[in-house]
Amino acid sequence: MPDTPKVFDWTDSFELGFKQMDDSHKEFVQVVNQLLTCADEDFVKAMDEFALHAKEHFGAEDAWMRETQFPAGDCHIDEHAAVMKSFDEVYALAVQGDVKTGRGFAQELMNWFPGHADYLDSALSHWMFKKEHGGKPIVIKRSVGQRS
Fold first, then answer.
1. What is the rounded CA–CA span in Å between residue 14 and residue 122?
2. Which of 37, 49, 112, 135 fits a disulfide with 5 by CB distance 3.0 to 4.6 angstroms?
3. Which of 16-30, 84-98, 128-142 has the lowest mean pLDDT?
4. Short-list 48, 31, 41, CA closest to 97
5. Is residue 113 part of a domain?
6. Tens digits of residue pLDDT in 66-86
7. Strand, helix or coil at 5?
8. Domain range for residue 26?
């Protein structure tokens, strides 16, 4: 286990107002937090759990974008693919015992997610919500500006 593990906690500031996406994002935060905090001997298992989550999470978002012809879909889909490409490279190192690089990847995911959610996912969330309900979601956030 790292000396001083970083912690990645869910905060209301990540809420986007599209339930399916918010639920998936909560799980994303949990699996990334597990990568950051698990014991070294459990790291590859945590990477496996991240892979299962990310394939489902990114796959669902990619499908929504394709099915609804989301205007910024190509850029968003490419970003998901880049994360998975990096994952594959880091995973190969992790199974050889390089947990340090794996934890660095987890830290980068923690740094990446807020911007990705604020810009790309929020636009998709509004798009999907509008397709289903005819308008933008109203999101009440208790802890705006208090991201970890």
1. 9
2. 37
3. 128-142
4. 41
5. yes
6. 999 999 899 999 999 999 999
7. coil
8. 15-133
**Does residue 25 lie in a domain region?**
yes
Residue type, 136: K
Is residue 95 within 8 A of residue 89, CB to CB? The reply is: no
pLDDT of residue 148: 46
Residue 36 has pLDDT above 80, yes or no: yes
CA–CA gap between residue 6 and residue 81 (Å, rounded):
25
pLDDT in tens, 102-142: 999 999 999 999 999 999 999 999 898 887 776 666 666 66
Q: What mean pLDDT comes out for the span 55-68?
A: 96
* Cα distances (Å, whole numbers) of residue 16 to 8, 68, 124: 18, 18, 9
Q: Which two tokens stand for residue 50?
A: 């991240």
**Cα separation of 6 and 77, whole Å?**
28
Structure tokens at 110: 């923690």
Round the CA-based radius of gyration of the chain to a whole number and report it.
Answer: 16
Report phi then psi at 143, rounded to 5: -125, 45
d(CA 99, CA 97): 6
Q: In CATH, what number is assigned to the domain containing residue 89?
A: 1.20.120.50
